[in-house]
Task: structure prediction
Amino acid sequence: MATDSRIAQTFSTLRRIAALAAPYFRSEEKWRARTMLVGIIALNLAYVYALVLFNQWYGRFYDALQNKDAGIFWREVGVFGWLAFANIAIQVLKFYVTQLLELRWRAWMTRSYLSRWMADRTFYHLELARYAQDEGRTPDNPDQRIQEDMQMFTDSTMTLSMGLLNAVVTLVSFVGILWGLSGNFDFTIGGTSYQIAGAMVWLAVVYCVVGTVITHYIGRPLIGLNFRQQRFEADFRHHLVRVREYSEAIALDHGEKVERGQLDLRFGAVLRNYLQLIKQQKNLVTFTAFFGQAAVIFPFIVAAPRFLSGAIQLGQLMQISSAFGKVQDSLSWFVDNYDRVAVWRATTDRLTSFDDAMRAHATRAQQLDRDGAAPALQTGDLAVALPNGTPLLSGAALAVKPGDSVLLQGPSGSGKSTLFRTFAGIWPFARGHVKVPDGAVFMPQRPYVPDGTLRNALAYPNPVENYSDAELRQALVDAMLPDLVTRLDDSDVWSQKLSGGEQQRLSIARVLLKKPSWLFADEITSALDAEAEGVLYKRLSDRVKAAGGAMVSIAHRAAVGDFHNQRWTLVPQADDAPAGSARYRLETSVSPAAA
Result:
């Protein structure tokens, strides 16, 4: 049963590898890819043929030495030059074409995975899923899988598959040579004589089968260790990036000691796993080194009696040694490449789980019916939950007409931002009906400010060519950032150089550029002083009203209510609410300012 399970697991792994590899060779680049692959296979076959010619050359060359035949000796030196030149040309061309195919394959896979990861907000939903109940099945560190695992997969797949092809072809080519050279092995047991034809072939098979079995049992833990090593390395690198991104906040909080502890914790996991990896690799290297060294002298020991008795000449002895070495190398391919196979298997598992997660996301039924071409905001039977399934809100029926302005309030953690994400259509843990006017703009509390020139950061995500310099400068002035009007072409890490308030004002400048009629704002002035908040909210409110739209805002400050005529409040349910019911209910009222 255990053997059947391992065989089934092996076939399952091969199917997953084929599922990862095949799309490129069926893509729009299929003919170029297939041509290059056929070329590589042909070059590998030519390389093996060159090895056969070298084996035949050994026999002639060493016989000439033994016979002291100068004419044949110098002729064979010339033959060697041609063989060596052809072999070098084959290897160089094979290397170049292989690397080129790997590069194109990696580029195609990377573009394909990036397209799928960025499509339909998959990148966002997969991160949310890590906090859901199925966290254990959610891929970690997608950045590493796209950047590092892609390169490792294409490189290892080409190297191992072509190596295996070489091993098979070499075995087929040299087993006949070795069979013919090894002669018969005669022995007597109990007075009965026995004869084994092609004894060297059988000895090579037994030698390598035993070595392969031992190697598998020694090296099997390497697969899991390599999988974990890649994850621990990625976790450590990810936290280093976070420290760099939040350097100012960490410095202000004097959080260096805590962050150093977190980095030490993650790096400790890297070192502990790597130490186990080293120990396991040490055992594997010890055995494979012994196995390889023994294979050097083994054919000489077996064939020496025939040579010393005069049955074969030196050339045949060297041919036997060469042929045995090639057969042994072919049969020992698994032994010699077990470490790399383990890394390849771990990489394949990581890419497969990432691929499965994206496929699952793509086929997941959309529970929220969202229409982005409605004249007003309207919801029907709207239910919103946390990633772990906890219901926040249920049965919500809301409506916002052009000319309205709504302030959404409630306790911290009540789900205001979650409802905001639901309106935007990016929250996957919601169901019901939502209609949102086309072209509505959603402003998060913490805006994204890309690196590069200020004009690109200001125009984001639209092309900078959409706006004139005068429009860009006026937006900065209207957003109370006059000091930046002369820096449109400066390149910098703006998320680090601008304060939280300046980043929020830059986000407001973007909205003033876009001139939307419908605006959804989530704490967009939380880092501003009361005076700046009032000025900017009035400008946004006036723009929206002039465009005939509406505004929905999330804010804690009471002063923001002056710019809204309605108020939605998330109120906690009573303690005696039925089990499984939503945590909050939504109450609507007229804003005191409007009253």
DSSP finds 18 helices and 15 strands in the chain.
